[in-house]
Amino acid sequence: MSAAENRAIVDRFNVELNKGNLDSVYEFIAPDFVGHSPFSPEPIRGPGGYKAFLASMGAAIPDLRYPRWTLIAEGDLVAIHLLVEGTFTNALMGIPPNGKKVSAWNINIWRFADGKLVEWWQSMDTLGFMQQLGAIPPMG
């Protein structure tokens, strides 16, 4: 597939996730998928693993949305710069909820094989996000 086709797939995937359609992982993600996130101590495996990861984030931040993103594609890679935001109303990784709006810019890189997402790397301002969650005190 072309870089433009891969870019369009990631765009469609984000639209589906914004609608709350977590089952879309089975359409877009390959069975041998491996994901890497600062919020998962172990690699995330398969579409079911990625769905569970998204569900855990969505349980903690039920109104989680991606209101804006930009995509860059080359070869079998698509990079997405996206804003994630929502309200922290339920515990996440043992962190009690504070009821505050949280937001963070992410840079995710997706790798394709045979028209499916096979690998994912998430990078974000983890320190800032954890401060918003109340897990780490603000600096200064």
Kindly describe this structure:
The protein has helices at 3-18, 25-28, 46-60, 126-133, and strands at residues 29-36, 44-45, 65-74, 77-87, 101-113, 116-124. By secondary structure, the protein is an alpha+beta fold. It has a single domain, classed as Nuclear Transport Factor 2, Chain: A (Roll), CATH 3.10.450.50. The radius of gyration is 15 Å and the shape is globular.
| Strand arrangement in the largest pleated sheet | 2-1-6-5-4-3
Compute the gyration radius: what is it? 15 Å
Number of domain modules: 1
CATH class: Alpha Beta
Largest sheet: 6 strands, mixed
Share in β-strands? 35-45%
DSSP summary: helix tally = 4
- How is the CATH topology named? Nuclear Transport Factor 2, Chain: A
Which term fits the overall shape? Answer: globular
As a percent range, the share of helical residues equals 25-40%
Which features characterize this protein?
140 residues, alpha+beta, Nuclear Transport Factor 2, Chain: A, six-stranded mixed beta sheet, 4 helices
